[in-house]
Amino acid sequence: MSDSVHNVRVQIPYHLRNLARVEGEIALEVVGPVTIRSVLDALEQKYPMLCGTIREHDTLKRRAFLRFFACEEDWSHQSPETELPEAIASGKEPFLIIGAIAGGSGPGNSRRTPHLELTMQS
Amino acid sequence: MSKVRVLVGTRKGAFILSSDGKREKWDVNGPFFAGWEIYHMKGSPVNPERVYVSQTSGWFGQLFQASDDGGKTWYQPGVKTEDAGAPQWPPVKSNRFVYDSSDATGKPLTTHQWYDGTQHPWEFKRVWHVEPSLTDPNTVYAGVEDAAIFRSTDGGANWSEMPGLRGHGTGPQWQPGAGGMCLHTIILDPSNPERIFIAISAAGAFRTDDGGKTWKPINKGLRSQFIPDQDAEVGHCVHHVAMNPKRPNTLFMQKHWDVMRSDDAGDGWKEISGNLPTDFGFVIDVNSNDPETVYVVPIKSDSEHFPLEGKLRVYRSKTGGNEWEELAKGLPEKDCYVNVLRDAMAVDTLDKCGVYFGTTGGQVYVSPDGGDNWKAIVHDLPAVLSVEVQTIA
């Protein structure tokens, strides 16, 4: 099943949507296991202008002020090779790439943003 | 009739201010790249329609943009301009600034001084300054933080470090200024294509005479009270350096404190602060028609980054320094507490030299008569990080 194609949904921050010239959610075809790395590979393949903005060139290290969420869980510190939940691989739930924000989370959103870091910018 | 195009980089986007040679009525376009920090933008002297932009963000890192129509449309070098959303591989590398530590061409990364005096590894953060070549529109230089100089020969699509600077030997003595360890000034010598001047805060000024292969510090005559050896070869917090291209061996420097001058391409410096009310500041520039006419904006101190007494003033010397006159006509008379950052002053090349500067309060001022009279082109932009001017025939 490693060569199967998965239709994955991805949400990216406002500024990256502008850079990629897309609106709303992005639909990706991911071949093989659906991991953070394979999702980002597919995203950058389709939108090469995003290279270096989510993870660094060469090291592929996640940029410090971006976080990865799947199924209301923070996956930012997981290995990029770890397979994402089935709900992500099947397209039932979107994979979220979120810019870290200052402040707390609102009612009804508390499970989704429990670990966001403070930033230095306004 | 000639036109001028003022390229303004701000904390929240880029703006282009355009006027005819009278410089009285202005069109304001922007924001471009809204919400992003635009540290610097500059046009090619060979092809003024080619404009390069350093776009940066604490979240998304460095981006590099260019225009081939004077800023009407933009593209990331390496992405197809006709369809920027088209799939394309290998990935875009216009924002890939990787220090060259290879055995064949590079230098060991080593470390530089950190704020606490310990050693710290080199880490790329952003591009502070872009300097297009004087002869080739596809060649452009980038001054970056942590301090190094990069060059692209394909219009910004790919970048290579010129490692002779970072690796020439004094690197471990360099240290960051309050704004970071940035290479903020790049000056290309129009009379000698092998000669480039650069400046770093806080390391000092450097020069290459072989096209960037080797570099040497050019800081003799600088004195800095905040470092243990006040006359050290490196470690000086140079804020900006300016040259009139008609006299490339004469350089003017605004240091952390002190305004300086060199008449031997930086081999030696002498202080020309003279009667300035304070010689702290960031910007300095030279009149395009008169190599002895120099402009600075005195700032109260390194602890209080705003003009003295709340009065925004440019000071002009028509004698190459020491004797300075206050220029106030049209500038705020009271309650003005803005700063003017190091890359936020520029001059045009019209018969009556126009002088321009931007403030952290979002004003961009112009004097169409060499400093005698000033007026604000715009009042309420985001904080201005940089100002460049293109004079277009």
Textual characterization of the structure:
The complex is a heterodimer of chains A (122) and B (393). Chain A is built from three helices and five strands, in the order βαβαββαβ. Chain A is an alpha+beta fold and 122 residues long. Chain A has one domain: Beta-grasp domain (Ubiquitin-like (UB roll), Roll). Chain A has a five-stranded mixed β-sheet, with helices on one face. The longest helix of chain A is centred in the middle third of the chain and has 11 residues. The C terminus of chain A is likely disordered. With 393 residues, chain B is mainly beta. In chain B, strand 15 and strand 16 form a beta hairpin. At the A-B interface, helix 1 and helix 2 of A face strand 6 of B.
Task: Give the tags.
heterodimer; A: 122 residues; alpha+beta; Ubiquitin-like (UB roll); five-stranded mixed sheet; 3 helices; 5 strands; 18% helix; 20% strand; disordered C terminus; B: 393 residues; mainly beta; four-stranded antiparallel sheet; 29 strands; 1% helix
Proportion of β residues of chain A? 15-25%
Most residues in contact: chain pair: A-B, 29 and 23 residues
- The CATH architecture of chain A: Roll
Spatial order of the strands forming the largest sheet of chain B: 3-2-1-29
Separation of the first and last Cα atoms of chain A: 46 Å
Q: What is the CATH third-level topology name of chain A?
A: Ubiquitin-like (UB roll)
Query: Using only CA atoms, what is the Rg of chain B?
Result: 20 Å
The CATH homologous superfamily of chain A corresponds to Beta-grasp domain
Shape of chain A: globular
Structural class of chain B: mainly beta
The H-and-E topology of chain A, N to C, reads as EHEHEEHE
The secondary-structure class of chain A comes to alpha+beta
How many structurally independent domains of chain A? Answer: 1
- The portion of residues assigned to helices of chain B is under 10%
- Separation, N- and C-terminal Cα atoms of chain B: 7 Å
The dominant shape of chain B is globular
Q: Return the string of H and E elements of chain B.
A: EEEEEEEEEEEEHEEEEEEEEEEEEEEEEE
